[in-house]
Amino acid sequence: MRNIIRTLFVAMALAAAVSPSASGQKRMKDADVAKGLEGYFTLATGPQAYPDANGFIRRWLMLDPISKKNMTNRVFTDSYTREAIMHQYFPGQFTAIPKNGDVEKVTMEYQPPVDLTSNRPSAQANDESKMVKANLYWHALDSDHFFLKLFRFATGLDKTRYGVIFWYVTVINCDEDIENVRLSVGSNCGSMWWLNGEEVAFIATDRHMAVDGTTSKKLTLKKGKNILRGCTINGIGMSECCARFLDETGKPVTNYTITLD
Known about the structure:
Blueprint: H1 2-18, H2 30-36, E1 41-43, E2 59-63, E3 66-67, H3 78-86, E4 103-109, E5 131-143, H4 150-156, E6 164-174, E7 178-187, E8 190-195, E9 198-203, E10 214-215, E11 219-221, E12 224-233, E13 241-246, E14 257-259
Antiparallel strand pairs: 1-5, 2-5, 2-6, 3-6, 4-5, 6-12, 6-14, 7-10, 7-11, 7-13, 8-9, 8-12
């Protein structure tokens, strides 16, 4: 009987070690976020932003990365990428517009810390998968570059940076309908993009980010609010993405504002 009780206590201790409670993770202070992301992102301020001169969207709400243990980029086929992105990790993932500081309670795959001497995941990362609960927070940010340096976003927040999924969302505000535009995106590794709840762009395979790497069908940015949502998944290596709208002649669309609500 004592052996059984001892075994149960050991099992409970091990479970606690690899399955920390979400409530034990706290949100970083804005000042710490700003310091960690310096050179790549700044805290979003002011009621609205604008696309840059080349039409790139720089203001986004970005969620702490979700661990999805991919130890090789060879897994990124169309079917694998789509299935991994479409899995529901948190409520409202395809519909909600979060606010800065909002928290998502996510169950995700455990990964040990990165071995910074090699800047690659440690050998332990190949261990059998364990699931952990985590509090992941949304951050209202402006990118210092025309693209989102997702790898640096994760690194600056001291989060897992390899084998992760990034979610981001923003609001495009138009004074009138803007017809016959295309969403033009690029990403390092796989990504999927939605406009007003409709999937409009998909990149499946591992690749270097290319500006205008893929474009959507013709779309209409309706008068009022338009919700643009994206998700990028990576394995080993850097991760980044970019997005803009192009008109029928291929010129960037800039006559709208960008907000986070």
